[in-house]
Automatic annotation (TrEMBL):
GO BP annotations, alphabetical order: isoprenoid biosynthetic process
Protein name in UniProt: 2-C-methyl-D-erythritol 4-phosphate cytidylyltransferase, chloroplastic
Species, as recorded: Rubroshorea leprosula
PROSITE patterns: ISPD (PS01295)
Coiled coil ranges: none
Keywords: Nucleotidyltransferase, Transferase
Length: 196
């Protein structure tokens, strides 16, 4: 079972962020990208939220899933806010901040300054250099992008056959600035016990 559907204090992990987003006045629609066999988890939560849910099929890679979800976005939407449901502790305050920054810049991502020392290694696993952590940030979600910018980024990424590991990387390929909105260290990603 994917980690976001495992129970946490009596409910699937994915529902925590669903409830956070569904209670925000800024959020007009929620599109869930998931395997149809897990849709019932969200359907059962419908009586606790005040908006309809749209479902889309996931793709092979993360970027394919995001592209699938983008196809269902209302054409009048001003922003797309992409969130990983394995981050159940995202706060509405942090979401509001990144939405504001995304609106002004066109693309913004929650992140926190790196606390650990990060080493760059060579191909033989020897330390090549120590990176200056004052300039390093750990990316989180949500990642917020204006829809027209995201569509343009996907055109480039798909045409060039590029692989990206997060959503704002798509617009980075357009050389568009991406703002890092300082988030919270509590916005952790849940990992299955065997990966923790």
């Amino acid at each position: 079972m994917p980690k976001q559907y495992l129970p946490l204090l009596g409910q699937p992990i994915a529902l925590y962020s669903l409830y956070t987003f569904s209670n925000m006045k800024e959020v007009k629609e929620i599109i869930i990208v998931c395997d149809p066999s897990y849709e019932d988890i969200f359907e059962e939560a419908k009586d606790k939220i005040s908006m309809d849910l749209k479902f889309r099929l996931p793709g092979k890679e993360r970027q394919d899933s995001v592209f699938s979800g983008l196809q269902a976005v209302d054409p009048n939407s001003e922003l797309v806010c992409i969130h990983d449901s394995a981050r159940p502790l995202v706060s509405s305050g942090d979401v509001e901040k990144v939405l504001k920054d995304g609106w002004h810049i066109g693309a913004a991502v929650l992140g926190v300054p790196v606390k650990a020392t990060i080493k760059e290694a060579n191909s033989q696993s020897f330390v090549a250099r120590t990176l200056d952590r004052k300039t390093l940030w750990e990316m989180q979600t949500p990642q917020v992008i204006k829809p027209e910018l995201l569509r343009k980024g996907f055109e480039l990424v798909n045409r060039e056959g590029l692989e990206v590991t997060d959503d704002v990387s798509i617009v980075e390929h357009l050389k568009h600035p991406v703002y890092i909105t300082e988030g919270s260290y509590t916005n952790i990603k849940v990992w299955p016990p065997q990966l923790g």
